[in-house]
Amino acid sequence: MDTMKKPVRVAVTGPAGQIGYSLLFRIASGAMLGADQPVELRLLERAESASSARLTGTMMELEDCAFPLLEGLSAFRDPVEAFRDADYALLVGARPRAPGMERADLLEANARIFVEQGRALNASASRDVKVLVVGNPCNTNAMIAMKNAPELAARNFSALMRLDQNRAEAQLAKKLGCRVADIDRVAVWGNHSPTMAADVSFATVKGEPVAGKLDAAWLHDEFEPVVAKRGGAILAARGASSAASAASAAIDHMRDWALGSGERWLTMAVPSEGEYGVPEGMVFGFPCRTEGGVARPVADLAISEALRARIERNVAELALEAEAVKAFLPKH
User: Fold this and answer.
1) So which residues are the catalytic ones?
2) Can you tell me the distance from the alpha carbon of 75 to that of 156, in angstroms, rounded to the nearest whole number?
3) Which of 148, 143, 131 is nearest to 320 (CA)?
């Protein structure tokens, strides 16, 4: 162990849920931060006794795995304590959409959660904390947390759209008869919602452009709808949400953010600095590269008019979401 790095603190909210269960063992195994990075897991569970009992069982299993990298394991009810000195925070817990619930109701219910968590991060997390919001609607939840943490840099916050990229790459690999690792430069722009713009205009397979290898009808009629509506299709098929793939995408997102993406593109929803006409501060999905723990949208891409229109549609949708939660945003 003396050759290992100093342990880092990883906070996870909603650890008793299905995504949390799929996530925690992979973090503790080293899949997220590397085989030489010890971690201390700090778990925030605010729910009632059933969730508390499930979390107790999950923690027992984590202990029984005897992960060499797991140097600490604690559960908290107070978010300020859970986030104390956290280097990474994965905000998974969120109010699920109930039958008959309108999106505006879902936005408001979750806004209350992410106001509290943003304030708690602001109060006690490391000033360099990397915050990934998984709980939906994740773009707007990330914006709420970010705005309620004024002492943390906006670039510390992101929302999970890597799952959409992973879904897009898997569909392309299946169509082209190649490995997912052969695919690069797939982008998903905008909001993690059915309006998202899955974009292959810059994509390559084995270093060659995919342009000309895919027909427009397949892209419009199959590829784009499958990527946009995949979560609903999985829910219908298995009677439960896509927890394992969401957890895997969160691991991918954090690993590449922390360790660097090299020349490969990854889709991250990050606070805009005005790139591609997206309003500043809007948490928006861009093709990004990461280096030194900083994620930056790929610059100066030639955007077609069709893609520009789809980006604008996502901007409009996120603006409506922001309007619906404006009571939860600081006035300054």
Assistant:
1) 192
2) 24
3) 143
